[in-house]
Amino acid sequence: MVLNIHLWYFLWILIASVDGGSVLVQPCFMMQTSRHEAIEKIALILSNAGHNVTYFAHTEYKVPVDFIAAKINVIKFKYPSEKISYNMPEDIVQDAMTMTITGEIEMLYERGGITDTYLDTLLLPYFEDVSLWKRLKDAAFDLVVLDSMDILFGGIAKQYLDRPTILWSNAGYEQHFENWLMPLPLSHIPVVAVPFSDQMSFMERTMNVYYYLTMIWYKRNWYDLRDENWKKVADKLGLPPTTNSRLSEGDLIFIQSNFAYFYPRPIMPNVIPVLGLKDKPHKPIDTKFTELIDVAGEDGFIVFTLGSMPAGMDEQRLEIFATVFAKLKQRVFWKYRGPIPKSLGKNTILLPWLPQNDLLGHPKLKLFMTHCGASGSAEAVFNGVPIIGVPLFYDQRHHCTILTQRLKMGVVVKFTEITVEMLSNAIDEVLGNPRYKRNALKAQELARDQPVNASYTIQYWAEYVMKHNGAKHLQSKPMMELNFFQYYLLDIACVCLIFMSFAILCVFYLIKRFYNFVFLSYDNDKLKKQ
């Protein structure tokens, strides 16, 4: 029996290696954050499933140990290392935290998004090695996996390589997908930049529409290359001199979400929710952490991180966090790089990096203080830990609202208004009230209760796209081609309004004629009698 099991296992490996497809995986070059970890995980999943995976990276990219073990082929291209941004630019983060939502949207699309500077200094060098691109095209990959955030590269690579494409959306239902992936009923689905729930008041629904229209206005810079810039790339690769670079040509998209987490909403068949991509057995924590945790005893420890935020936190807020942490019984692991706060307590350990997911799975963790980034929020849900949300900008407010209002697994503290008293009260509330832990465990149970895990979902749909040489049949072509007025039936509404106006005018005209007829007849009869 044991021999038969091993024989079948050997045959399965043999079949996988024979039938395995050829896959090109491309991360986003604009920032090296948790987005990269997710794309790397997808590459590993496909490689472990028996596919020949090629990972396209810049010269500064550090190849993970897992890639070497999985025999993933990493191709590197020349990239101006001094201009690579591994984190969100500091000026964008600092400015966004003090802006209105409208100003923040404008800045992210104009400065943080796709600009001429990004194209000229970073993207164009990417296409300098025409021979490399020719080899990639000649490789005739069965599948190309792209990060949805890198709109420019994604559109160009899709058009040049002309292969079936799958996108990865790290932040969930990102706003710039709405016109081709899924309907967006603004009456109960908030746009990603706002801290609204799905139960909005009249004023919130009004603001939701306003912010949606604002994003529609600014996203033209996110979607489209200017004609002259597109031609620079087109000339190098022999592409038509058009601006057809939208990622709507992708066959499928994986969304970091599921309906136990995000608000229920309509989606298209080519949108595949995947939550728990990085969920895996927790690794043993390094000795330096275990020793510190053991010292804390039953009081446990707290993890505090603002993700990839630069070391530019102002001194006042820095001291607020340090002062409050110093008064706690728990150990505090604070992911931070920058000047040491004057009020730093002995129980607080500053770390430039920490094994976040492994720490969140530790039984002595009492609280997770987070900026509510997409990946950190998903890890909080999958580990069932109570949170204090400290959102800084954009989609972080959206994720924070979901965690605190929909899942009720924590509270929110506004970073711009934070005080010692406010932060202390928030920590006391979450640590002292067991309902937050109960709600977190319930959210964990719902999120994990899926027919298949995230790895199998990724593998199945990737192989589905390769098997059928694309998945255009899952897309709604009209939804991608309809303009704003057609999509919302505004053209029909205008025609109806014209007909209604005409009908009302006709009614008024007939009433006036009838009135004149009756009263004129009456006046004539009266004159005759006189």
Automatic annotation (TrEMBL):
Please provide, in alphabetical order, the Gene Ontology terms of the cellular component aspect for this entry: membrane
Q: How does it sit in the membrane?
A: Single-pass membrane protein
Q: Which InterPro entries match?
A: UDP-glycosyltransferase (IPR050271), UDP_glucos_trans (IPR002213), UDP_glycos_trans_CS (IPR035595)
Q: What class of enzyme is it?
A: transferase
Task: Tell whether Transcription regulation is among the UniProt keywords.
Answer: no
Kindly report the protein's main subcellular placement as a broad class.
membrane
What name has this protein been given in UniProt?
A: UDP-glucuronosyltransferase
> Which organism does this record belong to?
Owenia fusiformis
Its organism's taxonomic lineage begins at: Eukaryota, Metazoa, Spiralia, Lophotrochozoa, Annelida
